[in-house]
Specification:
It contains 4 helices and 10 strands, in the order ββββαβββαβαβαβ. With about 190 residues, the chain is an alpha/beta fold.
């Protein structure tokens, strides 16, 4: 964990709390953009039964960091739990600016299952030399069972035609990541 930036301060531009506002329950999350040799991205198709007006979206697998984990370990664990695909840690591409393993950082708030969530996202990129196989049964939490519909490899060329992604801007940001950029997406309201 020593090679990761502190997520306590500073916060992304625009995410400051107004004076007197209650503390936001920020949760640190690790996510993993997995791009296979066929230029396909591993994504999870989702919906929220509490907010059917949002429709469906495709999201980068990942979730909360458990005690003792760094964001890479959390992202790898979450990919296995949410997709059944095991990705090796050595395939995670380090940030080109030497700032740590996350290549895409953001803070966002979103609605999920009737609650407002606040998340600091450390998103990593993995480029395995062969397409990882499904090796495990899906291990969804009850919340994920209610919202996750399927996991699939989506051709990178098709990602920009998806109606919505989580986080937003996935096609443009993946292009930047492949060019070696490190992206600080700042603060966003997803829904």
């Amino acid at each position: 964990m020593a090679d990761e930036p502190s997520w306590e301060l500073p916060r992304a531009a625009g995410s400051e709390q107004p004076p007197g506002a209650p503390a936001r329950p920020w949760r640190l999350s690790g996510r993993l953009v997995v791009l296979d040799p066929a230029d396909r991205v591993l994504l999870v198709r989702s919906h929220d039964p509490d907010y059917p007006e949002l429709g469906e979206w495709w999201e980068v697998p990942g979730g909360g960091v458990d005690p003792g984990e760094d964001t890479v370990a959390a992202a790898l664990r979450e990919v296995l739990e949410e997709t059944g695909v095991e990705v090796e840690r050595e395939t995670v591409v380090p940030a080109g600016d030497g700032s740590g393993p996350a290549v895409w950082r953001s803070e966002l708030t979103y609605l999920w299952l009737g609650r407002r969530r606040w998340s600091r996202q450390a998103i990593h990129l993995a480029r395995p030399p062969v397409t990882p196989e499904v090796v495990a049964e899906l291990r969804y939490t009850p919340e994920e069972q209610a919202t996750f519909l399927a996991a699939d490899w989506v051709p990178l060329a098709d990602v920009e035609r998806l109606p919505r992604t989580f986080p937003d801007g996935l096609p443009q940001i993946v292009a930047r990541l492949l060019a070696g950029d490190v992206v600080d997406a700042g603060f966003a309201v997803w829904c």
